[in-house]
């Protein structure tokens, strides 16, 4: 069970991140079969086949958080951007095939500012997991566990992560644009998108609290500082 929530909305944000039910090129090799039976997610999914999973991922996330703290917000955002496009299947970690006309998700315009530290974290964790439990754990599960670890390392609660996700094979940049909210979306547009994923207004508000953590590039809000809707004034 997750730890009981405190009154802070950012804590609620962290609690709800696990509602989001996102792999590097070496992870892509794990997505093999086309037809796969549905899996029942569970907290102890790897209890028999890879009991050390969370400990292994934890060793990587805690080291990353010390050495490159931006890995925290970067990984949480990576998880979100994966989950909103074709579900939490780590398809965002797949690289564009050399010579392919269709770019992969990670190369979509809306994903260009995802930080390299997030990809490095999942890659490192995946390498260690593969050494101990070869071919058992999906990158989608590694990403979900790593995102939870960073929530906790940043001062949020610890919650149990259900596991058993399949890794996706399909990763298309063309599927990103309409599934990831933009900085200039109205609330109505954001809500429509969240509703389409089965998430509510409350989820939208709470999850948006993730922005108490991390950075935004100036280009995302410079218009509101100096030229709000063409007025040449700041956003009132
Ligand atoms: C509600 C609609 C959302 C919009 C419009 C939005 C938009 C943005 C934008 C424009 C940035 C700055 C990106 C940059 O300049 O590099 C950002 C950063 C971030 N977003 Fe969101 N986002 C939304 C929802 C979420 C959700 C649901 C989560 C996770 C639960 C999330 C987690 C983050 C984090 C952690 C960062 C900081 C990333 C970093 O420092 O590397 N966002 N978001």
From TrEMBL:
Signal peptide: 1-24
Domain of life the protein comes from: Eukaryota
Enzyme Commission code: 1.11.1.7
SUPFAM superfamilies noted in UniProt: Heme-dependent peroxidases (SSF48113)
Residues involved in substrate binding: 181
Catalytic activity: 2 a phenolic donor + H2O2 = 2 a phenolic radical donor + 2 H2O
Enzymatic class: oxidoreductase
Ranges for domain Plant heme peroxidase family profile: 40-236
Role of this protein: Removal of H(2)O(2), oxidation of toxic reductants, biosynthesis and degradation of lignin, suberization, auxin catabolism, response to environmental stresses such as wounding, pathogen attack and oxidative stress. These functions might be dependent on each isozyme/isoform in each plant tissue.
Name of the protein in question: peroxidase
């Amino acid at each position: 069970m997750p730890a009981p929530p405190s009154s802070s909305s950012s804590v609620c944000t962290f609690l709800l991140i696990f509602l989001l039910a996102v792999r590097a090129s070496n992870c892509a090799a794990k997505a093999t079969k086309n037809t796969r039976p549905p899996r029942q997610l569970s907290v102890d999914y790897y209890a028999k086949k890879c009991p050390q999973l969370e400990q292994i991922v934890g060793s990587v996330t805690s080291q990353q958080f010390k050495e490159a703290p931006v890995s925290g917000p970067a990984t949480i955002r990576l998880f979100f951007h994966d989950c909103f496009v074709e579900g939490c299947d780590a398809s965002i970690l797949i690289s564009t095939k050399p010579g392919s006309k269709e770019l992969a998700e990670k190369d979509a315009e809306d994903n260009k500012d995802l930080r390299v530290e997030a990809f490095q974290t999942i890659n490192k964790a995946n390498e260690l997991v593969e050494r101990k439990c070869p071919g058992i754990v999906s990158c989608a599960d590694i990403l979900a566990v790593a995102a939870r670890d960073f929530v906790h390392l940043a001062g949020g609660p610890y919650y149990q992560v259900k596991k058993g996700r399949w890794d996706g094979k399909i990763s298309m940049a063309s599927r990103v644009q309409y599934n990831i909210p933009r900085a200039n979306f109205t609330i109505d547009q954001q809500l429509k998108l969240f509703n389409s994923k089965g998430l509510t207004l409350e989820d939208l508000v709470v999850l948006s609290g993730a922005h108490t953590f991390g950075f935004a590039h100036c280009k995302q809000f410079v218009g509101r500082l100096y030229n709000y809707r063409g007025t040449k004034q700041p956003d009132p």
